[in-house]
Fold each of these.
Amino acid sequence: MITYIRIMFSSEGRRPSLVFDALRNLGFEPTKGNYDGVYRWDTNATTEDAIYLADKVQVTLKGMGAIFTLETVE
């Protein structure tokens, strides 16, 4: 399973480099193309795992002025 993230930044929020540092700490890797980052699951992850990751992203980015969307695919 792979989870992709897209991020919208605000000029009133944290610098994009700080947002990406926080996402790297969660295991996301920056990428090029249609998505800003990718999380590669190392086990047979479940839908519940993906929801838990979404919770962790929300908590991590809270107060940073960034809006995100996630897409998880098999």
Note: The chain has two helices and four strands.
Amino acid sequence: MLSHPFMVRAFEAGSVIAVACGLIGYFVVLRAQVFAGDALSHVAFTAALAALAAGLDLRLGLFAGCALFGAAIAVIGPRGRADDVVIGNAFAWILGLGALSLTLYTTSSSNGVAGVNVLFGSIFGLSRSQAGLATAIGAGVVVAAVVIAPPLLFASVDGSVAAAAGIPVRLLGVIFLALVGVTAGEATQAVGSLLLLGLLAGPAGAAHKLTDRPWLGLLLSAGQAVLSLWAGLILSYNSPRLPPSFSILAVSTGLYVLSHIRPIRVPKAHRNSVAFTRK
């Protein structure tokens, strides 16, 4: 399997994308911002098609559009958290722009493959340059997530106390949702805009069921995301009729279901969040 360059690129870039999704997804679930992640999946579709319709690189629309939208809804929301009413209104507007972008792109180009790839992912079709860029951006997201993890955890658990302790809660919220946007752009290349929420929320949701310890939860979330991607790629390679996006999300969903059947929880650690952030 690894004698094929496209499989090697899929594993290399996909693994970094999965780690980024696992780490960022942990905080998406902790902060109850899954709806924001869902909105960003539609932003990924709209922004990518808008870039294609304008004759630009698809990735420029993906990353710029998702990051800017994520930061924007954080700025509008209270304390850097995206408000559901704001997201709902922006959601409808983004879907309308997506329909317009799709019409403009399909009427100006005979290439419909790019639109399908945005919707359902194209991890087996990553070129060397695309895989390299995805790996570099994913690594940057991972580093940023680890750096802001302690104060972000404190702000997520108790924003008022965190603000009183001098933590820039609002700025952290804006940075975090911008990172969610970049991660959404990354994950779109692997599983597509329609399914990226599963890679963000599935492993993270399972990790929250298994433990309340923050660092262990982050590790479990990232590990399950990588496991889902590896298993999905192997399944798709051995069963060509299975799209990789479907296989990846099937494994991710299966792990989430298993975490409900037999949760292995440790004593709650949220009460020690202040101590955690100061270590």
Note: The mean pLDDT is 81.
Amino acid sequence: MTDTLTWHGHSNFQIAAHGVNILIDPFFEGNPKADTPWRDIAKPDLILVTHDHGDHVGQCVEIATATGAHVCAVVETAGKLAKLGVPGAQIVNGIGFNVGGTVEFKGARITMVQAFHSSESGVPVGYIVVLPSGVTLYHAGDTGVFSSMALWGSLYDIDYALLPVGGVFTMDARQAALASLLTRATRVVPMHWGTFPVLAASTEAFRAEVAERTEECEVVEMRPGETIELVRG
């Protein structure tokens, strides 16, 4: 089976890999860029939530209860989601996990890393996902740029960095271009842009900023609903 990545707009991605289907920040209803209802997507095995803002939690509770998908989140956010209706048996590690921790799920290794943003429960996070095939993705969550992003490039061979570029609530084009360089990612997929009028309407500025800094990182711009094949290296 070929690993694939589907973008449902905003920060909502689905990773289909051998033996595991992962959904990240499942914001469908209320997301003007999501052209597929969550009931029509492939059934997820695992949902990763980066923080508890509504445009990231999205329909996590509904999807988890309807499909039996397990949920990954930082401890306090996992507790909040359990109170909202996610069955305790479907919370990974029973209570969630925390920054720096790694859990294994159906052959995938999920490492929780820091993000700099806000959250009513716990702290905002990102995830580094190593698929059974070895393909490695970094979903930064909502964040500004920070220098220790360089650690991810030292610890992992990141094939795809999924980075917010829209500004206002997260990194803008210039910061995200620097993040691309810091992570040493082979490819970068811009996210969290174009969803709402206040965000950057295109990736043009981001592409220009990346091109100015490095020729070693490929910008992979996805359209909402688009699926791409994932490759290593």
Note: The helical segments are 54-57, 60-67, 75-84, 149-155, 173-183, 204-213.
Amino acid sequence: MALKQNAKHLAKALYSVSEQNKVLDSVHSALNTVNDLVKINSQFRAFVQSKRIKSEEKVSILNNVMGEVGHPLVSEILSFLKGNQAANNFRDVTSLFNRRYNHGKNIVSVKGTVASSITEDEKSSLKSSLDSILGKNTDLVINVDEALIGGIRLRIENTYLDASVQSQLQTLRGELLQL
């Protein structure tokens, strides 16, 4: 529980400092880039978790290696975290920061699933419609699942909307079985 509280404090402090220094967007981008690296690259994760590398050295290395895609504030946060839980703690800090960032920027996360791939124009049109309906900027991610047959499934944060043919067929099947 103390680790979660620590992540909350770090995310809150990072957001406040970023906002005050007007670097919120670049810190957000760097935080997510580094978080992706920690997830997929075991050598980078081992570096982050290392207790042998001093904090100052870690910051210097991160700033040099990350260059334009990194940010000194993110390097400082990473240098603060050590040990086996460093990657998990960083993931928690990133998640909490992103939640605060999205709230501050009036952004809502939407994940859509369609039966076949859609064009960029169709995706843009869907995004525009969702923006106006929800009254927020949408961060739209589209996945393809051929099992849907047709239609769309949307997950808007924690709300699920299912307008797929697969769902309609399952409903019809249930109704027919009750007869």
Note: The domain at 2-104 is CATH 1.10.520 (Peroxidase; domain 1).
